[in-house]
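Re: the pair you flagged

First of the two:
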Amino acid sequence: MTYPLQEHHFKLLKKYGLSDHHALCEIRHYESGDIVFSQGFEYKYILLVVSGKAKVCTTSPSGKSLVLAYYLSSGIIGDVELMSKTNYATASVVALSAFECLVVPFQDDDDTMFKNLTFMTELAKGLSNNLMSSSHDYSSNALYSGEQRLCTYILKGAYKNYFYDNLSDVAATIGISYRHLLRLLKKLCESNILKKEKRAFLLLDKEKLIQYSSEVSYFENETL
């Protein structure tokens, strides 16, 4: 089904300096758990995030997924591949909620987007932010407890006060056993910080979750 572009889509294209691409764009919708981009998938477009939340992860030969230290609720999908001239996805993107993207096709190095200062500036900002986030998260894994890492992971991955994710992947990403993860989640539920629901955890006390995390100052600034 084809959806016509709305005013907020045109505003998003303008923000990235891509208004001249609007006739080629396509809107895509995903549900929680849907794969937006598969690792190794060949593509010829970028995606602009319109709404929702997704995780960026790499998959091992055994099938386990490891989150690459950041989540998407805005920005560009395919930026790393675009700048490295890689024609296949180097990681997978999985929706954690209802997720909407704007598909923007491009034509090799001759495309006007590569000569567009606005687009290139926004692209550079996104890449630098992801690099800083990844570097910080790698150091956090060595310096903080499993509980602190879990609370940070939940806060970064939550959308509209709900946390949806594959628990095996969560355990692998924050570097603890699956059994220990279940113990920590049970403790947070018993402390009335989280509430287990069918397919997700509801954040009952975000302030306490922030205090238990490894990035207290970061999350406190986010709520200001």
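Second of the two:
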Amino acid sequence: MDARAEESLIRAAALGDRQAFDQLMRCHLTPVLRYTTRLTGSPTTAEDITQETFLAAWRGLDRFGFRSSFRTWLFTIASRKTVDLQRRQSAIVISDNTFEAMEVRTPGPAARTVEHSFLVALQTELGRLGYQARACWWLREVEGLSHDEIATALAISRGSVRGHLQRARSQLAVRLAAWGPDGSDVHEARSPGRIRHQIPRPTTEGRRDDSPAPR
């Protein structure tokens, strides 16, 4: 969806057009659900946070004001909802199966083994990062947000974003040293672009019938 079409939908939705908001939700549901799944490690919890995010967006469209992109605004809401959850819980459970549905696209069993092993290791090490470092890394490397957009989404300074990204990348580089650039297959498997391409897309299949809908 181009920026002009999205702006028209946002303005229509802000005036109460439910169909316009439904189009916006269909466009942005997957990245928001993917993000909350990564942060919480729980598909069920991520679904709840995503639903709360879109409910809050629907109810707060009159306050959007186009001060950021709509996508960044949704990530901002989702981040706040996740932080609220963290405050209510002693810890966020990191799932061991976040990447299990990834489709491996490298040819041959050896390459598939290397890539799967790397993704499992990456998932483990991401879970060991602090919340903001993990969120910064994910929004940058997987969702492709700029430093400014990440700063807006997480309500932190641009300098903090750079710091979190630097620490996350440094820690991942050390902890994933076994997957260094010595082998071309391994280097290809660990590139951010390839990781982004393989992240499983959450679906709404199995969504609870009693889940709230924007109104």
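The mean pLDDT is 76.

-B.
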